[in-house]
Amino acid sequence: MFSLLNSLQGKKAVAYYRHSAEDKQENSVLIQREHAQKFAIKHNIEIIHEEADEGVSGLIANRPGFKRLFNDWVYNLQAPHIDYVLFYDISRWGRFQDQNEGAHYAFMCKKHGKILVNVSRGFPQEGQQLTTSLIDSIDRFMAAEYSRVLSEKVWYGAMKVSRDGYSAGGTAPYGMARLLLDENKNPIGVLKKGQHKLISNQRVTFTPLNDQTTETIREIFNLLVNDWHSPNGIAEILNEKGILSANGGKWNRGKIVRILTNEAYAGTKIYNKTWGRLKQGKKHNPRADWAIAPDAFPATISKDIFYKAQEHLYWLMPSKWKKGVYKISKAKQVVFNEIKQLLSKRIGSEENTDLLLKNFPIVFSVTFYKSSLPLWCFAIPDKFRQHDSILAISIVLDKRDLLDQLFILPTEKFSRNNFLLLEESDDSLNNYKIDKAEIQKKLSVIIDQFLIESEEKVVS
After folding, report:
1. How many helices (H) and strands (E) does the chain have?
2. CB contact burial 137-166 (16+ within 10 A = b; e otherwise)
3. Res 320: pLDDT
4. Per-residue burial over 102-123, b = 16 or more CB atoms within 10 Å of its CB, e = otherwise
5. pLDDT in tens, 309-328
6. What pLDDT, on the 0 to 100 scale, is given for residue 2?
7. Is 261 in contact with 313 (CB distance < 8 Å)?
């Protein structure tokens, strides 16, 4: 014991503490400091500086106190000499989702001559480097897993609340307010900015403010749907009238488009449009992964107006319809290659195959949504009228898979203008849908029928 104290005589250290909102009280900065000071006194170490991050997540290294620790003390050659960097335990060092990130910063301390000490476990034992490294790896994994499991629980809870039509957090859209409901879902009152519910079984929903901002929302939709003004044109009109946007500034195209595409104004609550948990970056989720609750709260504008606005935007915004054209083009390549192979097997002539392929009865449609249910509009050229049925394929813009739904549509169902509108709610829809497991089989049937009809046309 005397030799250990003698070897530590005059040693100096910097201590680091971290406490975030989700951590329990026993992990507070004051308690961590108390543990570090007791450890330092016991081992005759002088703590000459302390850094702390209060209310900061340990998922990332970009924390003010953590950055100062390295920039001012570990990396800085002009800093006063220190022998140790003290911290309470691995979870306080960080809950990095990539364990190598936490190990990297530990290695950087070692590389710059500073021994990293977990005061809850004590000094690393000489000759036990392998065991110590293994324990550190397990601790890093457990620290990361704690955040992952907690994030999953929070996410599932938020999804459940959102599917029931209530708010899982965040601010209300422009022109709307957050309405607090009691445990029986009766209104209590409108929440002001910064106010939150106090009881766990209370709920928060949205409601139109019914003030000038709500009237502005209705005017924006009216200018698009009835007057066919572009988003840029709408922004100019509002700015000329001196109407301010949500942040008190001027309107621009982006702000107008965000309002026109926000289904909350039609009374629909949507959650999980994007994924951004555990500081792993943000990505957009396909609509199939969204939590959608139609008629969750009073609408600012009618559903009919909202969906007309989406159709108008599709044609007014080149980025939208160009994306649809591109997706359909890619889908055509995939489907036509498959059809070409099947035709070649049957007729054995590549030249005739290419000729037949140009007249093959197939149409495509981009999927639209009405009341959160998909609908499709298929159009055929007059020459397809000679066929009994048409292969129809839908494309969803925000999905990685090119092909969404496949249908076999009787030609007689198309209108005199060669259009056919299909909705998910149609009772007859299941008669037309192709199960993806039967695509090859159904496609072969269509091709055989197509070849018979083509031969009959040639004979006649």
Report:
1. 14, 17
2. eebbeebbeebeeebeeeeeebbebbbebb
3. 65
4. beebbeebeeeebebbbbbeee
5. 887 787 676 666 667 777 78
6. 37
7. yes
